[in-house]
Amino acid sequence: MAEKTGRIAVNTGYYAMDIKEYPIPEPREDAMVIKIETFCICGSDQHFVRVETPHAPGTEGHEFMGRIVSMGSRANEFIHSYGGELKVGDRVAVYPHITCGKCDPCMTYGDGVCGICDNDYIYGGVFDQNESTIMNNIPDQWPHFKGGFSEYCYIFPGTYVWKVPDDMPGEIAALLDPCAVAMRAVEQVLTPIGGTGEGFSTTSRCLVIGAGAISIMTAMILKQMGAKQVIITDFLDEKLAKAKEIANVDVALNTSKMTTEERIAKIKELTEGGAHIVINGANHPSSCVEGLQMVRKCGYYVEIGNAADFGGAGIMSEINIPSVVFEKNAHITSVIANTPQCFDRAFDFLKRYKELPFEKLITHRFTKLEEIIPVMKKMRDADFIKGVCTFEE
User: Fold this and answer.
1) Residue 259 included in any domain
2) Quick one: 162 and 50 in the same domain?
């Protein structure tokens, strides 16, 4: 009998994805294999294919869900499942990080906190080429299927997963990672115990910069939590119209024809002195400098879009640091570290898909691995919010 195989889209260079075929692995006793149902394209995925420096082929894709097709005899002991014990046939959404649990950050902040672990493994991380362990992004090395841009994925021990209800569309469940980023951003503006300033409340005037998928979900969460005012800004009317339709924001403002000074003045006017909360989802360094000047005294500023430097912009900013950063005594942070617990709250939020229009975030649907690059090339189009692949049965 011929060995059953599956296909993977492998990042091989600048805007290059090679479709490769490998045997579908049998899981070890502590692991399982899923047949991917749906995966999403993240902005970082596009950054990875835009790297012009030659590099070894790597697996890509970290926003995905699928159905369990095989399990090791002890998989339930080693895989962390929200929703109860797992079995073949269950649909699951996947936390894309596995932390080591042993480094100083893990020992300090807890196993499972991604973004700070010294040995953090990322499904579909492309550039992890450590041959000394099977947890890497080398497609030629067993178990081959190590990312979301694929027909299958090997789920390693230590992975967190969420059981997906049968009636929940795969394209909604696959939004878990970006929704968790939005959730983490909002949770960072809540009033801390012992804090002297007020965090988020029903009196908060909030600004979200940028109208991509994460920003729109951030605005959705703020609105559902009862913010007094939610403003979202962008340079494209098409994206702003989506934000208005999906998140029901109070103001969707096109700032493309304004100067920096005009943008800052306009936000101060709309918020009557500055936003209590500014969450920046725009992926351009200048938006940080502007956003910091839009926050109110003792307010909160959270960076999403520029939290990681992908090296593509090559832009350096000169600012008066005391005036822009410190003078307002604002709380300034970013979204790098995240937790399975925050992902769980995000998954619970996504379960409200029958009342909240998450599906409208998906502007580009496709069904084949070969379509990844063509869809990625549309990511800068005015009408692009989120690209999602759902395989045909």
Assistant:
1) yes
2) yes
